[in-house]
Amino acid sequence: MGGVPGAIIIIIIIFYPFAIETAGTWLEMAIELTQEIGRRITTITEDTRETTFLFQRFSVALQRGNAVFFHNTMVTE
Q1: Of 6, 19, 36, 61, which sits most exposed with the smallest number of CB within 10 A?
Q2: Range of 50's domain?
């Protein structure tokens, strides 16, 4: 890998629990994290709808996951 010889790379990973229940219930920490990510995206894109779009993307992903799960429970012969 290229880069500066002798450079030290520090990687910080923070685990942040993120829960969305299939009934639509969001863990408070999940709401806060989504809002913070949305704010940061808005800062870059200057589109104030980014947080709303992010919530919508998570909701669609949950619905798709539920559809796959439901489909896999079907008995095929």
Answers
A1: 6
A2: 28-72
Structure tokens at 57: 């993307």
Q: Is the pTM of this model over 0.90?
A: no
Amino acid of residue 69? F
Q: Give me the number of domains the chain comprises.
A: 1
Q: Give residue-wise pLDDT tens across range 34-57.
A: 999 999 999 999 999 999 999 999
Average pLDDT over residues 53-65: 89
Beta bridge partners of 20: 26
Residue 6 lies in a domain: no
Q: Is 26 helix (H, G, I), strand (E, B) or coil?
A: strand
